């Protein structure tokens, strides 16, 4: 796995999974069966989860690096972590890793949301271009993964307007999804800085923003898995919570 100390990663993960099996978080709310989920995600802006249990929604944007997306896929396979990717289809990573990711998408462990085709500032382009950005990415998601990511749309850079919200809603993306906290890896960080950012962000009720762009996070997976375990957090996709 490029960019990862595989022995350190798998050793940390194995210890974490074993500990979790021996001492499951007593305060974590079990995932609801499909037929008993809430009515659905909210219309408008979503920034955090309802205050129930010790759930945390890990959301990962962009996918500039195929190697980092592959590493996230392995992390999910090895630890059972549930997360939501917000995809830019222009990035080859989502095609390169589709064979590995799609089974986890189909199983519901990994969820995909729409993040536009090529990550422009929506405040700097016209309404027709906004619609094409969202629609083209939706077509890519359907063709590649069999889902369109609706109703979750994350505007690039978190920048959106009344007009862009209306266009997204008209295209089926009625939940404009931002975040409560972020790891901070939109820019280069040291491993210590990244883990410190995760320690601040990994708390019950948070929708956490991270990115699949820079390799530093791939060297921190063991410590991130430990944070989840130590805090008795239950990782969830957005669909786990809202159906």
Poorly predicted regions: 1-39
CATH class: Alpha Beta
Percent of residues in beta strands: 5-15%
- SSE succession: HEEHEHHEHEHEEHEHEH
Mean pLDDT: 87
Q: In CATH terms, what is the fold-level topology?
A: TIM Barrel
Per CATH, the superfamily is: Glycoside hydrolase/deacetylase
Can you give the helix content as a percent range? Answer: 40-55%
What is the tally of helical segments?
9
- The oligomeric status of these chains comes to single chain
Calculate Rg over CA atoms: 17 Å
Total discrete domains = 1
CATH architecture: Alpha-Beta Barrel
Q: Which structural class should the secondary elements be placed in? A: alpha/beta
Terminal Cα span? 33 Å
Shape: globular
Q: Strand count, sense and closure of the main sheet?
A: 6 strands, parallel
Q: How does the SSE layout of this entry go?
A:
Blueprint: H1 6-22, E1 44-46, E2 55-62, H2 66-79, E3 83-87, H3 93-96, H4 98-107, E4 110-114, H5 127-145, E5 152-153, H6 162-170, E6 175-177, E7 181-182, H7 191-201, E8 207-211, H8 221-230, E9 234-235, H9 238-242
Parallel strand pairs: 1-6, 2-3, 2-8, 2-9, 3-4, 5-6, 7-8
Outline the structure in words.
The longest helix has 19 residues, at 127-145. This protein is of the alpha/beta class and 243 residues long. Mean pLDDT is 87; it is low at 1-39. The chain is built from 9 helices and 9 strands. It has one domain: Alpha-Beta Barrel (TIM Barrel). It has helices at 6-22, 66-79, 93-96, 98-107, 127-145, 162-170, 191-201, 221-230, 238-242; strands at residues 44-46, 55-62, 83-87, 110-114, 152-153, 175-177, 181-182, 207-211, 234-235. Helix 2 links the parallel strand 2 (55-62) and strand 3. The strands form 2 sheets. Strands 2, 3, 4, 7, 8 and 9 form a 6-stranded parallel sheet that branches.
